[in-house]
Design a protein that fits this description.
Structural class: alpha/beta
Number of strands: 5
Strand content: 5-15%
Oligomer: single chain
Strand order of the largest sheet: 3-2-1-4-5
Number of helices: 11
Radius of gyration: 20 Å
Shape: elongated
Length: 244
C-alpha cells in the first residue's frame, strides 16, 4: 500500500475525517429520513464524544501503558547495540527556517535519542522519508551535536520503517536496538518491529495522559476542539493498527 492510499484511508476511516463518509452515506439514504438522520446523528455524536478529554485520556492511557515509562533506561543491562529513531513530521510553516525544521513531535524523539546516546555511546539510525531524514539529521548533528551512524530514507509507514531498518542493522551486524518513538505510538511500532532479525526494545517518551486534567477543571467545556486534536494520536494508534 503506497503512502497516498494509506493516508487517504486513514483520513476517511478515522474521526474527524470519517464525517465525510457519514455525510455520503446519509445522502444515499435521503429517501429514508429516519435512517438518514440516524447516520448523521451517529457521525456527529462520535465526533463530540471523542473530543471530550475523559475519552482522550482513556484512549491514551490504553496505548501508553502497554509499554510503561522506564526511568533511567540507560542503566538497564544488558544494553542494546544501537538506537533507532522513527521520523514523525516536519514543520512546513517554519518560515524562519525556510520550512526546514522538524515539528515538535520529531524534536522530542531526537532529543530523547540524543540523551540516550550521550548516556550510552550507542550509534544512531534515523528512519523515515528522504526529506524527513535529511531535516532530522541536520537537527541531530547541528543542534544536538550528536553524530549519525546510519540513515534509512525510503520509508513512509511504520511497517516500512521496520523492514528497511532491520535490513540495514542486520547488514551492520547489530543484534539488538532501542526504538525511540512516542508512548502512544510504541504499541504500533513494536507490533511491526517484532519477529525481525534484530531484537527491538521500546524506548518510549512523552507520556501525556497524566497532563489532561492537571491545569484547569472542566477545560473541555470551553476548549472541546483542543481535546479533539489531543485525541488524534489515540485514534491513530488504535485505528491505524493495520494500515501502518
Amino acid at each position: 500500500m503506497n503512502v497516498v492510499t494509506s493516508r487517504t484511508l486513514e483520513f476517511l476511516l478515522l474521526p474527524p475525517g470519517n464525517l465525510v463518509l457519514f455525510a455520503l452515506l446519509a445522502l444515499l439514504l435521503y429517501r429514508w429520513r429516519g435512517a438518514m438522520l440516524t447516520v448523521l446523528f451517529t457521525g456527529i455524536l462520535q465526533t463530540v464524544v471523542l473530543s471530550l478529554p475523559v475519552v482522550a485520556e482513556k484512549l491514551m492511557v490504553g496505548l501508553e501503558q502497554q509499554y510503561p515509562p522506564v526511568p533511567e533506561l540507560w542503566l538497564q543491562a544488558p544494553l542494546p547495540e544501537a538506537i533507532v529513531i522513527l521520523g514523525a513530521e516536519r514543520n512546513l510553516e517554519a518560515s524562519e527556517y525556510a520550512g526546514r525544521m522538524s515539528a515538535s513531535t520529531e524534536l522530542e524523539r531526537l532529543n530523547y535519542a540524543a540523551h540516550l546516546h550521550r548516556k550510552t555511546g550507542l550509534p544512531l539510525l534515523l528512519s523515515g522519508s528522504d526529506q524527513d531524514v535529511n531535516f532530522m539529521r541536520e537537527v541531530l548533528e547541528n543542534t544536538f551535536q550528536v553524530p549519525l551512524r546510519w540513515q534509512e530514507n525510503q520509508s513512509h509507514t511504520t511497517w516500512e520503517n521496520a523492514a528497511f531498518t532491520d535490513q540495514i542493522l542486520t547488514d551492520a551486524g547489530i543484534r539488538s536496538a532501542w526504538v525511540v518513538t512516542h508512548a502512544w505510538h510504541m504499541p504500533r511500532a513494536m507490533q511491526v518491529f517484532a519477529e525481525r532479525q534484530v531484537q527491538y526494545l521500546p524506548a518510549s517518551l512523552s507520556y501525556g495522559s497524566s497532563n489532561f486534567w492537571r491545569h484547569e477543571w472542566l477545560w473541555w467545556v470551553r476548549k472541546p476542539m483542543r481535546w479533539l486534536a489531543a485525541k488524534q494520536p489515540c485514534t491513530n494508534g488504535w485505528g491505524c493498527w493495520r494500515m501502518s
